[in-house]
Amino acid sequence: MCLTVLHLYIQIQFFFGGDNITSDIAYVLNISPEEADKLKRQYGLALRSFIDNDNNIVLNTCRDENLKNPTIKSSDLIEIIEARIEEIFTLINKDITSHGIKNNINNVILAGEGIVNINKSDTAGKIILNIPVKISTGRLISTVKSTYRVSYALVRYIAARPYAKTVSSSISVKTEKNLVKTIMGKIKDFFYS
Question: Which of 3.55.40.20, 3.40.50.300, 3.30.420.40, 1.10.10.10 is the CATH number of 2-166?
Answer without folding.
Answer: 3.30.420.40
